[in-house]
Structures are given as structure tokens and as C-alpha cells.
Design a protein that fits this description.
Number of strands: 4
InterPro entries: Asp/Glu/hydantoin_racemase, Asp/Glu_race, Asp_race
CATH architecture: 3-Layer(aba) Sandwich
Distance between the termini: 25 Å
Largest sheet: 4 strands, parallel
Family: Belongs to the aspartate/glutamate racemases family.
Structural class: alpha/beta
Enzyme class: isomerase
Number of helices: 4
Protein name: Aspartate racemase
Pfam families: Asp_Glu_race
CATH class: Alpha Beta
Number of domains: 1
């Protein structure tokens, strides 16, 4: 099973929801006690929210890129951003790492 790198902390409730839904999906598809193999790096949402408020999307992207690189070094096979709003920086994150970032409709909740 591949290792999912979850960029979380972009409001912790969203991170928890992504984690829960991913694991429920694995369990439902594979049965038994199966669960996803994953790593999660959480960022400080206070910092991200400040950058959003200021319209400083480059700084917000830098935080996500740092998180993505940490997950890549940690052994993630692909990445997922645990927030619908922050997918606006998906291309910046994707360009900064060598592993795929799932985004668009596939990487979003809702």
C-alpha cells in the first residue's frame, strides 16, 4: 500500500475529516481492520489565516511547500492537502516536490 502524505492543520477539523474519510474508505473497500498508511504534517493555522487575510498567498504557499517537502523526505508516495481552500496553491506545491499531489476534484471533500 502506498503512503499518503497529508498536509494538515489547515483547520484541524478538516484534517480530522480527511483522515477519517480516507480510513473509512480503505476499510469499506478492503474490509476487516484495514486502514490507510499515512503521514501527516500539520501547520499552524493561525499563520496561514494571517497570510490569507493579508492576501499573501506566496507566503501561504511557502508554508505548504515546506510541509510537502517534509512529507516527501518522510517517505510519502503522494500528497493530499487537507483543505479545499488551500488547493488554490496546489500547482506551487506540486512544482516544489518530486511526488504527485492529488488535487482538483479528486483531492477535495464535499
Amino acid at each position: 500500500m502506498k503512503t499518503i502524505g497529508l498536509i494538515g492543520g489547515l483547520f484541524w477539523e478538516s484534517s480530522a475529516q480527511y483522515y477519517r474519510l480516507i480510513n473509512e474508505t480503505v476499510r469499506d473497500r478492503l474490509g476487516g481492520l484495514w486502514s490507510a498508511v499515512s503521514l501527516m504534517h500539520t501547520v499552524n493555522f493561525e499563520e496561514i489565516e494571517r497570510f490569507q487575510r493579508l492576501g499573501d498567498w506566496d507566503q501561504a504557499a511557502a508554508v505548504l511547500i515546506d510541509s510537502a517537502r517534509r512529507l516527501e523526505r518522510g517517505g510519502a508516495d503522494f500528497l493530499l492537502i487537507c483543505s479545499n481552500t488551500m488547493h488554490r496553491m496546489a500547482h506551487d506545491v506540486e512544482a516544489a516536490v518530486r511526488i504527485p499531489l492529488l488535487h482538483g476534484e479528486f483531492g477535495r471533500l464535499g
